[in-house]
Specification:
It is found in: Cytoplasm. It is built from 13 helices and 17 strands. By secondary structure, it is of the alpha+beta class.
Length: 432
């Protein structure tokens, strides 16, 4: 008798199988018992008929606690009562691990309670669905990069410098030297692109921002592609193709998860249609001022209300192009058509989810880059290796970074980013 996971139930219709699972809920009458189960792959129902199992086994059902683990034997049946479309008619079972007084019951619980029990909250159907979407975004990223001939390169997590030029870094000691937790692998990706042409990194990054918004985490994961011989316009085309690819794969491979989350798939379908609209920073400022945002002036960065308003003018993600150089990092290339700005873009997700991608063409002129580093108050010696990239065969190159957790929140349709990480790190939370 084969041991299966229920996500593959269709392959075993009307066959006897073994399933290992945990109990999420149960109900019974005099002659029939229903167990709501999860096996890591899916949530499903098992049916136990009193007249088809041993009497002591049917009696034992009454004493199974929530989250007890079971080994079940039975027959896979089609079922229109189940979102999965299949259930298990049980012929026998045994308890592997007892569970009593499980703290997360089917009743409502407060957010702090659930976050304190995050190690258990992950077992719920909603959290399971979100993590499935997260996993699919990661899987599809690797597939997209492979199909487009990118090579994965892993930048260091401990660094001696700050790519974004910010003081909001986590400081540590590297033996006798100062070091920081990485806030971006981008500078290292530029070096890698000069070796391999098209590269990407995917790993944890850290921002010591004292922010409590629904869009921010202290530790989050970034995908950061970098492309040699690629200018700004071509980079934008790669970005939108990549995002549309992610959306398409989530729609195709996460149907049950999207249903659990009650995500509007027709809405997601719109985001697969290219190209994405574009608006310049300067035009975006004008749009905001014409619509009552008197608090913003040219040269200011956008806040969440500004981004949301701009995004609401479109039905798809929108690129905001060419921000003022004063509010962007030192490595971005000056826009030759307007030297006040740089060749960059932020991709703003619809439905109020804000920026999910930031990217730019990189400055390639040695003197200009060295001058920018000094203007930003950074140490030239620390960036000597980065400047070397402009001395030895420099080429036009561009890249971008996409935040995994914000992308998960957007495609899942959930309100707060804290649910997008298995064990989120927030301003006042490092447990569990």
């Amino acid at each position: 008798m084969e041991t299966i996971t229920m996500i593959h139930a269709a392959r075993f219709l009307d066959q006897e199988v073994v399933v290992n699972a945990w109990v999420t809920n149960k109900r019974s009458s005099g002659k029939i018992a229903f167990l709501q189960l999860r096996d890591g792959s899916a949530y499903f129902q098992a049916v136990i008929l009193k007249n088809q199992v041993a009497p002591e086994l049917f009696e034992q059902v009454k004493h199974i606690g929530q989250e007890s683990s079971l080994k079940l034997r039975g027959t896979v049946q089609a079922s229109d009562r189940s979102a999965l479309g299949y259930e298990l008619l049980v012929s026998d079972f045994e308890i592997i691990g007892h569970s009593e007084d499980y703290p997360i019951t089917p009743k409502e619980h407060g957010t702090d309670f659930l976050m304190d029990h995050r190690h258990l909250w992950l077992r719920s159907s909603r959290q399971h669905a979100i993590m499935q979407i997260r996993n699919e975004i990661i899987r599809a990223t690797y597939q997209f990069m492979a199909e487009n001939e990118f090579i994965k390169v892993d930048p260091p997590i401990l660094t001696g410098s700050a790519p974004e030029g910010t003081t909001e870094l986590f400081h540590t000691k590297y033996f006798e030297e100062d070091a920081y937790l990485s806030q971006s692998g981008q500078l290292y990706m530029e070096a890698a692109a000069m070796a391999f042409g098209k590269v990407f990194s995917f790993g944890p990054t850290f921002r010591a921002e004292k922010s409590k918004t629904r869009r921010h985490l202290i530790e989050f994961w970034m995908m950061e592609p970098e492309m040699a011989f690629v200018e700004h316009e071509e980079s934008l085309q790669v970005q939108e193709k990549y995002v549309a690819y992610l959306v398409r794969n989530v729609i195709e491979h996460c149907q049950l998860a999207l249903k659990t989350l009650e995500r509007d798939i027709e809405q997601l379908e719109k985001y697969t249609q290219l190209p994405y609209p574009r608006i310049s920073y300067t035009d975006a400022i004008s749009l905001l001022k014409k619509n009552g945002f008197e608090d913003i002036e040219w040269g200011d960065d956008f806040g969440s209300p500004h981004e949301t308003f701009i995004a609401n003018q479109y039905e798809k993600p929108v690129f905001i192009l060419n921000y003022p150089k004063g509010i962007k990092p030192f490595y971005m290339k000056i826009n030759p058509e307007d030297p006040r700005t740089v060749l960059c873009a932020d991709l703003i997700a619809p439905e109020g989810y804000g920026e999910i991608i930031g990217g730019s063409e990189r400055e390639v002129d040695y003197e200009t880059l060295a001058e920018n580093i000094e203007k930003f108050g950074l140490d030239l010696d620390t960036y000597a290796w980065y400047l070397d990239l402009r001395k030895y065969g420099t080429v036009p190159h561009s890249g971008f970074g996409i935040g995994l957790e914000r992308t998960v929140a957007w495609l899942s349709g959930i309100e707060h980013i804290r649910e997008t990480a298995p064990f989120p790190r927030l301003l006042n939370r490092i447990y569990p």
